[in-house]
Amino acid sequence: MEEIKQHRDFMKSNFGERSGWRSDQQRGVPNPPLQKAVEDDSAQVIDLPEADPGVMKFRDFFDLLEARQSRRNYSRDQLTLAELTFLLYCTQGIKEEIGEGYASRRPVPSAGARHPFETYLAVNRVDGLEPGLYRYLPFSHQLLYLEEVDNLPGKLTRANLGQGFVGAAACVFIWSCRPYRAEWRYGTHAHKNMLLDAGHLCQNLYLAVEALGAGTCAIGAYDQGLMDNLLRLDGEEEYVIYLAPVGIPREVG
User: Fold this and answer.
1) Domain boundaries, the chain
2) I need a labelling partner for 191 at 20 to 30 A (CA). Which of 7, 23, 28, 184 fits?
3) Is the pLDDT at 195 greater than 60, yes or no?
4) What whole-number distance in Å separates Cα of residue 55 and Cα of residue 210?
5) What H or E segment, with its residue span, contains residue 174?
6) CATH superfamily of the 54-247 domain
């Protein structure tokens, strides 16, 4: 019960409640970059088309809210690159950069406009993309190809505690958290904010996916170590925080 109480206290924590506390921002420490660097200059980078609302099959907002649900049965159909691009923009696209790398405005809200997430894609079936792992580069609107993975569907299923529909999806959106991007401004309170922001992020995906006539299901039950290892993350300065498979719904019955 003490552990439960500690987690409840964390949820009720107030920003700046420690007397005399100052953030790194207040101390004059330079802000961390808003996008993870591309370390390999020879890496394959893929230009994406502009996000096109014309890919939407359904546009009425109230109908989207009514239809939104978690969908776990996917066909073998591909996503198109235009559909994937639309989903990337709706979740982490750049609307405006603020103050030369200080913050950014995107289609989803984030505390202090910090947006402490990176978007990775585990691609099984997207027209025009080789299967494998990718990372979205929102400021240039490109995909960075990371690597091919042997038996990617099987590894996704195992890392998600045997949930086979994750590995069966056309593409899996995997969001990592780079906590210092938010800690720089909010200290320990950033951790509460980041969990809230992750919910904003995934709800946008749900609605955008529904508009395409596709399906998704948010995943919170996964093996942290296996997911971090799949993306070669250190598990400290960057780690997986949320993921959602996306696919074309399979007719059942």
Assistant:
1) 54-247
2) 28
3) yes
4) 12
5) strand 171-177
6) NADH Oxidase (3.40.109.10)
Residues β-bridged to residue 46: 143
> Which residues are CB-contacts of 250 (< 8 A; sequence separation ≥ 6)?
73, 74, 75
Tokens of 123: 């691609």
What distance separates the 2 farthest-apart alpha carbons in the chain? Answer: 63
What distance in Å separates the CA atoms of residue 106 and residue 115, rounded to the nearest whole number? 8
Cα–Cα nearest to 215, from 59, 71, 64: 71
Rg of the Cα atoms in the chain: 19
Quickly state the pLDDT bin for 252 (edges 50, 70, 90).
low
In the three-class reduction of DSSP (H, G, I as helix; E, B as strand; rest coil), residue 101 is classed as: coil
- Residue 105 corresponds to which tokens in the numbers above? 């405005």
Calculate helix-pair angle for 190-212, 2-11, nearest 10 degrees: 80
SS3 content of the chain, % helix, strand, coil (to 5): 35, 20, 45
Least confident of 15-24, 46-55, 212-221: 15-24
Q: How far apart are CA 24 and CA 99, in angstroms?
A: 17
* In contact, 48 and 139? CB cutoff 8 Å: no
